[in-house]
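Many introductory courses stop at the sequence. We go one step further.
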Amino acid sequence: MIKKLSLISLFTLLPASFYFAQTTVYAYVKDQEGKPVESAEIDLVQSTDDVKADKIGYFQFVDLQPGQYQINVSKQNFETKIIEFTVSADEKRRDLGVISLMPAPFANAGVMVIDDSAADNDEGGSSMQPTVGLLSSGRDVFQSITAFELGAYWFRPRGVENRFEDVLFNGVSMSKNDDGKVDFSNWGGLNDVTRYPFESVDNITPSEYAFGNLGGVVYYNTRASSYRKQTSLAYSFTNRSYFHRAMATYSSGLSKNGWAFTFSGSRRWADEGVIDGTYQDSYAYFGAIEKQFSSRHAINLTAFGAPTYRANNSPNTQEAYDLMGKDYNAYWGWQDGEKRNSRIRKVFEPMFMLTDYLKIGKNSNWNNTISYQEGRDGRSRLDWFHAADPNPTYYRKLPSYGIFTEEEFKANSQIDWMSLYQANYLNRYDMAGNEKGAVYSIVEDVNKDKTINFASHFDTKLDENWKLNINFNYQNLKSDNFREMKDLLGALYANNLNAFGNDQPYDLDNPNAKILVGDRTQYSYDLLRNQYTLNASTEIDLPKWNVTASAFTSYADSQRDGKFRHHQYADSKGKSEVFNSIDAGLKGRVLYKVDGRNFIVYNGTFFSLAPTLNEIFISPRVTNMITPNVENQIINSNDLNYILRGQILKLRLSAYSTTIKNATEISRYYADISSEAVDQGNALVAEVLSGIDKSYQGFELGADVKITTTLNATAVASYGDYKITNNPTVTTFDDDFGIREWGTANIKDYKIAGTPQKAYSLGLRYNSTNFWWIGATANYLQDQYLDFSALNKTTAMYTDPRTGDNYPGATPEAIAMITAQKKFDDQFMLNANAGKTFVFGDYRMGVSLSVNNILNNRDYVTGGFEQGRAVNFPEAFAESQREKPYFGPKLWYDRGTTFFANVYLRF
């Protein structure tokens, strides 16, 4: 910390200052095109404070004593630059000249495409985690590689799922209350305005704007004046979830009378994607208008949304893929010469925000945001009533079952829309001429959320090296959930009757309802939630130490309000009891500065996490019933990091350990619990795993070596072990039997699915001084496991209910064989990217191309799950002996070679 000398100290030190004149050191920070880099952070290692470059990139340190110094110059999406210099005794001013910052690796490599289409399936999906490394204004090499390279193959750093990430817009959380996950489709296509987060911390590093979770915090500030004054036009061509993208963005900068405007819009579309029968048409818009009343007070209005229409692709058994190829999609069929998909997601949930920025005194800021989000998220599917399953991959239709030959299956491998219309037409009237309901129809599962948020952030400097942050958030949610008739497929109407429940009405208050297009059918309920969160954090920076501490507490009340009176459950209509939950937690970071290049960092956190709405209510479509044994998760996570920031070598080595206790997981599927001897009932069940304990442990290494001034090598290794550490209890719920308890599932030491647990990457990148680059990475993925069904891991699977003993042949060896978790083969992937920037006066143009999976490896399973169909030993053992099981795992495969080409013009 540089302080002005008082008059007394001036006279006290006069003899020294006479011999050693104090020096002002200054410089300009610019990018590779010579433009100023505003707000670059300059850290003087020998001081306890730092400065920021002004609007023209200028900075200075005053009153430096003679000696050796080092500064670290950093800025979001630029490589950190280390400058060493000497101050001599006879210097009054020391000019360091122009410090040029190069773009960080991958900062120019087009854009990171978050392909969230896999999450549109009922079976779930995965998403990448766009987080930024510690101690760098841009991504460290580990975070860059895992996001851009390994993330393309559904690798999750430290095994952390989407629901443990936090994304904030002006302090407002974008996580959904139903499942806790971030829905990136709410702002998909708005890359220009979300390219540079205001704050981005990885893993459990404390944040200034939220307590955070296990997956870090990404904070976007949409203040119109914070965007660079420019116009940007871009076009992309790709073969990922869409083929074309057009995008335009305009930022006015701050005018003399205090106004600033930023607008952005895009469209992404494909008449048919790489996977058969998929198509997409998605738009996005963003607008921010700011009025600055003074240098201390401003307000900003933000609105954004992304109306999206997208067709999905099915998971399939290996038998179906062997017959039809890896691009096979069972969700579509031909109708009138066009491909029609039965699984369409149509979502539009616009967000409106008003933010007030207030500077109080010299060292304090108080920002407040109120937001409102309302929209509709609908996902369609085929439905049938007293008719055959129209799914082309229904197990009885597969050649292994013996009804269809391989050629017959191939001839009938897509949905036969004409036969569905024909069945409805023939079923319009009975023999007496009375109208009859639809046999087949398309329904849409819809949730319409109305969410009000208030977010308040206050920060102040208690001293030159001591900062305090306080955050308060309130959220009110009303989520309207229902199934709607989307298409009667030629029928006159549909019955609102439960074909699997003796044709009882789904709504006893309207037993003879004739459902038309647009009407609600089968279920309708509201979910209500209020949540209050208070977080405080403080950071103290000392010459050798930096210490950050954060704490939070949260209260939430949740309730269901049913609209249909179900024939089986008296509590289906009306409001449930209120489920209350209280959370609290602590988080801390201790950083030791060995010197200007070497750092040791410890992060630790201990907190509770309330259950989501989907976890609280076991089957909200039909009952107010609270899930048995649902509790707050208890999370404990620690990591220890060594960081080296040299001019030649940048390195981070981390060891981490995370435990999660008392987790609840609910899966929904059709279970066949009966055997040939005993009928225990077959039903669509909600399977509840209660009290799950999990462990995530491992090591991370990220290294960036500057071989020459233009050639860099990168190396990344992630060695993880993610597993379940106990045998949790299993409960099921279904309409016929209600709650059934099955004891414990023998799944201790089963691996966490959904991500490779080990991953390695080696890369080379050449950055020319003529503004072009080329790079390639080799990636190796290990230990990917299949997600499992827990019900067939209980004693019910191998116990004969007639005797209470094991079924004949159910030896420990046989049980272990049929319940073993499947591990997929290791995979090698090769990626490459290249690009060039052109400068024409005030105009800048860039072109880039990235290609993933150059070798077109189609053997990599990006996700999959075990079917829980056969929950009895005789059938499960027979399944295990079949060369092609009837109920084999459902899988998704990598799409093969994909590319993303981008061109932009900015002026």
